[in-house]
Amino acid sequence: MRRRFGNRTGSRRTIASGICRLRGLLLAAVSPAGLALGAPALAAVALAGAVTFAQPAYAEQIGSGLLLGEGQKTGDDTPMLVEADELIYDYDANTVTARGSVQIYYGSYTLEASEVTYNRTTSRVLAEGNVRVTEPDGNILHAESADLTDTFGEGFVKSLQVETADETRFAAETAERVDGEKTTFNKGVYTACKPCEENPDKPPLWQVKATRIIHDQKKKMVYYKQARLEFFGVPIAYVPMFWHPDPTVKRKSGFLTPRLGYSEHRGFGFGVPYYWEVAPNADITFTPMTYSKQGYLGAAEWRHRLINGSYSIRAAGIYQQEPLEYKGLPGETEWRGAINTTGKFDINGWWTTGWDISGTTDRTFLSDYEPWAARSDVIVSNIYLNGQSLTNYFDARLYYFRVATNGTRLVPTAQNLGKTVVDRQAKQAVVYPVVDYSYVFSPSTIGGEAGIEFNLVNLSRDVGDTQQVNGADFYRGLEGNFARASLDAHWRRTFIDGMGQMFTPFASVRSDVFWLDTNSTQILPSNYDVTRDVVFRGMPAVGMEYRWPFIASHSWGSQVFEPIAQIVARPNEAYAGDLPNEDAQSLVFDDTNLFDTDKFSGFDRVEGGGRLNYGFNYTANFNRGASISAMIGQSFHLFGENPYAANDLARAGKDSGLETRLSDYVARLNIQATRSLSIGTRARFDEHDFDLKRFEATARVDHKPVITTASYAYFDKQPDLGITKERHEVYNSLAYRFAENWQALATARYDIVNKSLVAGSIGMAYDDECFKASLVYTETRNRYTNVTADKSVMLRVQLRTIGDGQISTKTENLF
Questions:
Q1: What are phi and psi of 534, to 5 degrees?
Q2: From 560's CA, which of 331, 631, 693, 760 has a CA 20 to 30 Å away?
Q3: Sign (positive/negative) of CA torsion 136, 137, 142, 143?
Q4: Residue 404 in contact with residue 374, Cβ under 8 Å?
C-alpha cells in the first residue's frame, strides 16, 4: 500500500521534519506556514502505554500540522513521552523508529539511545547505540543494544553495565530480564568500586566474577554461580555458589561473614553467624563458634522493636572440653555462660525507662570469649527511669557491679611487698537506688535564676572496701548499709553597671540526712561513732562574684582582660570527715573548679567556712583564626575550719592543694596556633615556692597527611594518700596517611617512672569507597595483676555491600 504525504511517496515516512521533541506533558502545534517554509518545526506528542506510537491517521494529522490530542493509551494507561530528532513510521514493517538523541519517559523509567525502534507486531522495543535505562529504584543500565518488551519488564541486553543507586555496578557480556523482577547476567561481574577515571578499563580494587549472576529484585537477593573474588584482577578465592542481599536491602535473613579467632586458652575458633529476620520489627542472630580446645560455643541475640521502644536479649554458653587450660583462673569450670538484656522505652514525651542487665557464670567469661562485648574490668547492670523537660530533670537508677577480672588485686604495701591479695567482688556496692532531680526557674519577685537539686542514694556492701597503703588508712566504702538524702535550694542574679562591672550575688541552703548501719567487725577509726543511726546536716551559704572584663580592639584582633573574685560565707561543715564518703572521693583542684562554690565532687561532703576565690582571665583573638586563652588563680580560706584539711574516711582533700589556708596556684594556657595545630596545658603550683605539683599538656596536629595527639602528665608525690613517688606518663596517637588510601596507625601510653608500656597498638589501615581493611596489634597491661599483659592481633576486612569479617588472636605469649 502506498500513501502520499506532502511531496513524498513510499512506505517509510518522516513524520516531523526538522526536530520532533516532546517535553514533559506540554502539547504544541506546528503551523502549516512553518512546514511550508521548511523551518525547524516543534511538535509535542503525548503517547500512552509502551512505545505505542500514533496511528497512521495521527501521522496524517501531524503532517498537516493539526493540534494533537493525548495520543493512544494501552491497557495500563501509563503515559509515555518521547523526545527525538525525528520519528519514522514504517507501514510495511509496522514499526515506529525514533532516531537521534532519543529519550523515552515511561512511568518512572527513562530510556536513552541513539535509535529506538518499536515493533507493533511483537511489542518489542529495540534500542541501539549508547543505550541507557534509568529504573525507578535509581539503577542505571548501560548497553550497546537492548531488546526489551513494551513494558521494559523483559528483555535481552548485550554488553550490559548496571550502575545502582548506591554506586554498585554489574557488568556482563549478555543479560536477560524476565517479568521485570529477575535479571540474569551471563559471564557477569559485580563490584562496589568506582571505575578508574584515568583508565576505565583497569580492573577495580575488588570484583566478583561468575559464570552467572542472578539479581532477583522481588526477593532483593543476588546469587552467584561459579564465582571467584578478584583483587586488582587477580583471583584470590573461589566458591561454587554464594549469595547476599542486594545493595538496597538493610535487613535480610541469611548467613553472615564467617568469624575466625585464636586464643591460647581456647585454641582456634571458627563460626558462621546466621541472621534471621523474624518480622519487620524483630530478628535473631545465631553465632555458633567451634574452638579446637574448648569445643562448641552457642550464642544468640534477639532484637525486637515496638511502637514506643525496643529491647534485646543475648545469651551465650559453652561446655568446656579442657577447663584445665584456665588452671588457677575463674574459667577453670566445665559450664560457662552469660546472658544480657537491654531495653529502652518512651513512656510519653517526657519520660523514658530502660535497663541493661548482665549475668555471668564466672567473672571472666565475657573477657575470655567476647561473645558480644569487648574486655571490661567491671560489668555494670542498671535499671533506670528518666524524665526531662525544659526546666526539670529526673533520673532514678539501680546499679549492680560485677567484677569481670579474676576478682583479686595486689595491694602494694611496705609490709607485704605487694603480695596482699584482696577479693574485689565482695567490696562492690549494690546501689538501690540513686535518684537525682533538679528544677530551674526564674522567680518573678527577685529575678535571676533559682533552682532546687535533690539527691538520694541507698546502697549496701558485704565487705568493707578498706586498705592501708604506706601507713595511710583508706575507707572507700564501709560494710553494711548506707543511705543519704540531700536537698539544695539556690539562687543567683547578675547585675551589670555602666562601667561594665558584673556583680552576681548568690545564696543557697543545703540539708542532708544520713541513715547508717555500720555495725560490723571491721576496724574503724576511733572518732567514728558506729552507734549512730541517723545524722542531720545543714549548710547555708551566701556570697558574691565580681567580674570586670576589659576589651581592647586592634588591627590584628582583640584582647579581653578579666579579673574575677568570689567570696562565700558559710558555717563550718558539721561532722567533717566523720561520715562515710561514697561519692566525693575524687578531688582534682584545677582551673575548672576554682570558682565552684563547693569543690567536692559529690554530696557526701560539703564545703564549709568562709572562702575567697580569685583569678585573672586573658583571651586574645587574632584575625586569621588564631587565639590564646590563659587563666591563673588561687583560693584563700578566710575563716572557720578548712573542710579540705579534715581527715575523712576516704582521705578526700588530702594533698589536693586546698588543705592549706592559702591554696596552690592553678593555671591554664590554651593556644590555637592554626586550624591544624592546637596546644592545651593546665598546671598546679605550690603556694610557697611555686614548685610544680601537677601538670598536663596536650598537643594536636591535624595537618594532612598527619593527625597526631601527644599528651604528657606529671603528678607530684601525695604522701597523705599513700603515693610516695612522682608519676610521669606520656601518651601519643598517630595516624599517618602515607598514600591516598593508606594509613599507618599507632598509639602508646608509657609510664616513665616505672619504665613500662601501659598500653600500645600499631597497625595499618586501608579505606576507600568500596573496601576497608585494617591489621592492628595491641598490648595492654592488666592493672590488677601488674605483670601480665594482654596481647592480640586483629585483621578486619570489609567489602562494601557484601559484608565484613575479622580474624583475631589473643594470647599471653604471642611474641
A1: -130, 135
A2: 693
A3: negative
A4: no
**DSSP E strands: which ranges in 288-348?**
289-291, 295-306, 309-319, 335-346
d(CA 275, CA 530): 57
Which tens digit of pLDDT belongs to each residue from 13-67?
333 333 333 333 222 222 222 222 222 322 333 333 333 333 333 333 233 222 2
Residues 405-436: tens digit of each pLDDT: 765 554 444 444 444 455 678 888 999 999 99
The C-alpha cell of 323 is what?
A: 577447663
pTM (2 d.p.) = 0.74
Number of alpha carbons in the 13 Å side-chain half-sphere of residue 176:
5
Query: How far separated are the first and last CA of the chain, in Å rounded?
Result: 91
For residues 738 and 405, what is the distance between their CA atoms, to the nearest angstrom? 39
Query: Which amino acid would we find at residue 291?
Result: Y
What secondary structure, in 3-state letters, does 762-792 show?
A: EEEEEECCCEEEEEEEEEEECCCCCCCEEEE
Looking at residue 543, its pLDDT comes to 97
Integer Cα distance of 130 and 172 in angstroms = 15
Q: Is the pLDDT of residue 248 over 80?
A: no
SS3 622: strand
Measured CA distances, 375 to 312, 367, 381, 780 (Å): 20, 5, 16, 11
Residue predicted with more confidence, 793 or 525: 793
Q: Which DSSP category does 643 fall into?
A: G
* pLDDT for res 52: 35
> Could you tell me how far CA 347 lies from the centroid of its own chain?
25
